[in-house]
Structures are given as C-alpha cells and as structure tokens.
Amino acid sequence: MCDFSQHAIKKNTSHLQFGMHTLNQLSPHQSATILQVKAGPDLLRRMAALGIRPGRRVEVIRLAPMGGPLQIRIGHTDLMIRREDAARIDIDMESLS
Amino acid sequence: MKRLALLGMPNTGKSTFFNRLTGAGARVGNWPGMTVDLLSAKVLLGGDMVELIDLPGIYNLHGFSDDEQVVRHFFTSQPVNGLVVVLDTTQLDRQLALLLQLKTLGLPITLMLNMADEARQLGIHVDQQRLSDELGLTVTLISAKYGKGFQHVRRTLENLLREHPHLANASPTALNQDQNIEAELDRIISDSVTTPVTVPTGISQRIDQLFLHPWLGLPLFFLCMFGLFQLVYGIGTPLQDGMSWLLDHVKTLILVPALQGAPAPLQSFLIDGLFNGVGTVLSFLPIIVVFFMVMAVVEDSGYLARSAWLMDALMAKMGLDGRSFVMQLMGFGCNVPALMGTRIMRSRTLRLLTMMVIPFSLCSARLQVFLFFSGAIFKPVAAASVMFGLYITSFLMAFLTALVWRGKFRNHEPLLLELPPWRFPTPRQLLAQAWQQSGHFIRGASGFIVAGVIMVWALTHYPFNVTPASASTLAGRLADWMSPIFQPLGINRLLSVTLLFGFVAKEIVIGSLAVIYGAGESRLAGVIAHQLDWVQALSFMLFTLIYTPCLSTVAVLKQESKSWGFTALAVAWPLALAWLVSFVFYQTARALGW
Predict the structure, then answer these.
(1) Which chain A residues are closer than 8 Å to B9 by Cβ?
(2) Does residue B316 sit at the A interface (CB-CB below 8 Å)?
(3) Cβ pair A62:B212 closer than 8 A
(4) CA B244 to CA B240: how far, in whole Å?
(5) CB of B527 within 8 A of CB of B517?
(6) What distance in Å separates the CA atoms of residue A19 and residue B153, rounded to the nearest whole number?
(7) Is A35 part of the contact surface with chain B (CB cutoff 8 Å)?
(8) List of domains in chain B
(9) What is the ipTM score, two decimals?
(10) B26-80 pLDDT per residue, tens
(11) Does pTM top 0.90 for this prediction?
C-alpha cells in the first residue's frame, strides 16, 4: 500500500511543486531543507541531537542495496537512517538541488 | 575521594581521552543498579587522588536510549566535583547542544574540544576565547589520539578541583525538563565557529565509495570478515595452543612432582580441579587479546557502523543488525570474545538477542569434536557432508533463535547511527583495548569458571576410591538418573557423562571419552566406531553442537548481561533445542529403519 503511494508521488515530482515530500523520496546526490520531522518525542530528540531538525540542509549520499537504509549528510555528520524513518522527515521541494 | 565524570557524544574520542589521561590503571567498576559497566580510574591531580568515571556516550540528556538512562541514573545517585565534557570539534554545530543541556545540571563543567587537528584540516576555526566567554567555562583544544594539549588538560582539571573541592549533586529538576536550546546553540555557533560552506571531498568519502558501493559493498564486506576471521584465529589459535603447552608443562614438570607426597584426593583436587580451572581461564586470554586488538581497528575505523548499513536489509527481519552479524561470525572462532564484543551495541535488548544467538556459532573447540567423530564413523566423502550439514544447522539454529526471541527482546531504539569518518586507531589505543578487555574477563568470569570446573571435577572424581567418571562416581549415578532423558536420543550412559565434561569445555570431550571408554586416544576412534552406529553418533554431534558451548560462555553471558535470569534462559533454551533436534533426528532415522 504504502509503497504504491510513495511511488506515485515520486513519479509526479516534476509536475508537483506542492504537497508533502519526504526524505526517502530523494535520490542520491540530491539535497533539500528539512521542513518538519513527524516522530514521537524519543525519536525527535535523537534526530535533533544528530542534527536532523527543521531548517537544516540534508543530502542523500547513497542508498543501501535491497531496500536497506539511506546514508545522509547533515553538516559534517554522515548518518544512516532506515527508509521508514526517513519517510517521517518532510522536506521543502523548493529547496531541492 | 574527589570525583570527575567524563561525558560526551558517541564517537568523540572520549574513551581515548580517558585512556590517555589515566594510563593503564582503568578498571570496570561496580555501580549499584547499573546494567552496563562503567570504566573508572584513579588519577593524581594536584596532589589528590581523583576518581575519573567514563560515562557512556550519549546524544541527549533527556533521551530514552539505554545509555541515556544510565547517565541520568548516575547523576541522580552519584555526586561529583565536576564534569569533563568531550566534544568533537568538527561537529560542534550539533554537539554543543549536549553541553548546553549539561549546563542545566548546575555542576562545574570544563569543555575539551577533541579532534582539533582534524577540524583545522577541514578548515573549521574555533574562536576559543569567544566560545569560553559565551559558555562561561574553560575550553581546551586537544587531540586525544595523538596526545596534544594534555599539559593544559591536567592544569585545567586541577584548577576545577581547586575551585570546587566538594562533591555536589546534579540539580534534580534539570533531569526532567527539556529546554529549547536550539536558538542559543545557533547563536553561539555562528559567533565563535567558522565552518567552510562546502565540505571538501576527503579521503573518507573516497573510501566510502568503494566499501559502500551498491553491489561491491557486500562482497567486500564478506571478504573483509573472512580476512579478519583468519587474522584473529590465525594468530590467536597458535597462541592458545602455546598457552596449553605451557600449562601442560607446568603441570607435569612442576605441579605433579611437587605434590607427590600429598594424599591422592588432594592431589587430584589441586591438579584436575583447581589447576585445570585456572588453566581454562588462562587459555582464553591470548584469543581475547588478539580479538579485541583487531576489533578495535574494525570499530574505530568506522567499518563496524558501516556493516550495520550494509547488512540492515537482511538482519532487520530477524530483529538484529549488521553488528550482530559481525559478532556472530566471530563466534565461529570462539564464542567468548564474540559475546564480550557485543558491548559495541548500545541497545540492551539488541545486545541480549545477539548474545542468545552467538552460542550457536560452531566454534573451533566443537569443530575438534566433530572432526574426530565424523572421521571415526564416516567415510571421507560422507564426513565432509556431515561437517557441512553441521555448519548449516549452526546457522539455522541461530536464525531460528533470533526469530523466536526477537519479540521478547524487541529493540526500541531507532536505527539512527552515525557513520563516523574513516579513522585509524594508534597502536596505543589497540593495547589499551586488549589490556582492559583481558582484565575485565579475568575479574568478571574467572571465579565462575574455576568454580564450575571444580564442580564437574567433584562429580566425576567422587568417591575417590573408584575410577574417575566410572559408573560408581557421582557423575555415573547422575548419568543413570538422566538416562530416561538421553535414551530417546540414542545417547548412551557413557556419552551422557561426556556431555557433562563438554559443559566445561568442548576441548576436553575427546580426552574424557578416552578415559571413560578406557582406551588411549589413538585407539579411541576404533572403539567409538565399534560401539556406535552413525545415527547415534550424529545425534550426539547435533546435541553437542546446540547445547551450551562451554562454562566460559556461560560465565561471560552472566558477566555481560548482569542478569541471572537471562543467563538461565540462554542456557535452558539451547538445551531444550538440542534435545528436541536430536530427538526428532534420532526417532525419525530409526523410524525409517536406519
């Protein structure tokens, strides 16, 4: 279910400049600004401590094979984050580069 | 005694700083109510002995990870003179948040900015004076790895202790509340830290391109693991053999002649009980030293965190992660260091689940038993298939165990790991690791191991006037009593006594069989082949593979989990599984008329 809807959004990225976009939809070498993080207080705190918070710029470096986690870079920190957790991070498509 | 607590985020070189400052005197302390070990050491600072405690690395004072709870528990129960906070200069833009949180504790703080050299290379400039003024505390730039700035460190710590000579408790309210410190963080950073806009593509990224390559990454990982395994056990096993050789000579050349006049039961107790127990402990030391030196390279280099990234797609289904897999593989050499190695996993539940799985790895001691049995019973071609089948069974049992128990040991921590830049540890860091871990093993597990060996000695040697391990000893009577349990597995009374020896160490199984069957080791193969058919032999091998690997494993399970309940489970589950697998195999084979 979930996979289908994400696929649909990704396919339409070029036409849509609005709507919700999440970190897991970025391809390697794309970067964007974080809009908001939708997570429980624990995860939110952990993410903030690692630099994942609104206003910060995040770049997807590469994806692990077989649906594994993403390697992302925020400032000087490289992180691994599972795709389902990356889906909780909304990004600003305007800022995509 | 005066006391300083060392704090910082993971991967900041906090432990390197600790080792650098304290030398080799660090030891794992016992702290009430703690589920993890805290390293502490006494250092002479300004004429006073000061206790320095290395608290686990945390991202956040208010987080709910196991380590974060440990740190909070520490602050609610232990007063300190001050905090030494170590942060990574290259990541100050986010790490300073932790310092701002710690300031709310109301304790004296001094800040160490580590990896100052690395930051300079990246073009990051810190205005030390400005930062110090903004934060209202002293700031020292250091490189813990290369020992730069340590004369300032000692002076700073001495000043702090002089100004705050009394132990103080953390402000209790600070541990509950969370404050919005992000605005303050951004202000301080923009005032005192200059960072280049783009990160230069460093050597680290280039190494990543190779080791995290979409389709080369995994084969390279397996290749590296194979190489590491060969390295650890290629060096460790001969050293272990050397240690047994040495112990044998001490026994035959010194101990036996020295005890000639003593009564026979005392001789037997000292040589076969006590000395063998001490010998068992010592025989693990070489492999622990080599293992932890090699693992220090794997961990500090950053490859271990990357193994989690590479293997996550496969391991997550079993409730484990890539680091579990590395330790499970290392268990195929020896389970003991692999179990100790799980300490790199900071989530307790993930660690416990990994510790349930590791004992199923077919270690080199069990390999000896299987090589002997399959050689004695099967023709060479069939023997090879049997060995292969045992390895497959070993993996199957591990995966089955993970699947069955992952619900109980559910990992609540999100897999949000830092992939630190590739770094290589100095020889000094390797030695510190080897020294600490072997000391930890000796202090933590040796008592248990020696006591266990003596217990099995008593079972197999009492009463003293009969042949050891024969039917009239305690062990023999125990075997009679247990025969309804082992009969359905095709394991006879003599073999079940061997299983009792095998509980101590699989290395002594063949030797004890020779004693029990009254045959020399050279004739043993013939006797075994004559007495057992292949179904019985295979059933015995399956049981030996799956049940408790050895007493030292049990001791380390207890030492690392700090829980008797978990240790009991980690012994009972494989025993039950071993019985079930052997039962199904033996009864099926017999039902098929084999």
Answers:
(1) 49
(2) yes
(3) yes
(4) 6
(5) yes
(6) 53
(7) no
(8) 2-194 (3.40.50.300), 447-591 (no CATH)
(9) 0.81
(10) 666 556 666 677 888 899 998 889 999 999 999 888 877 888 888 988 998 889 9
(11) no
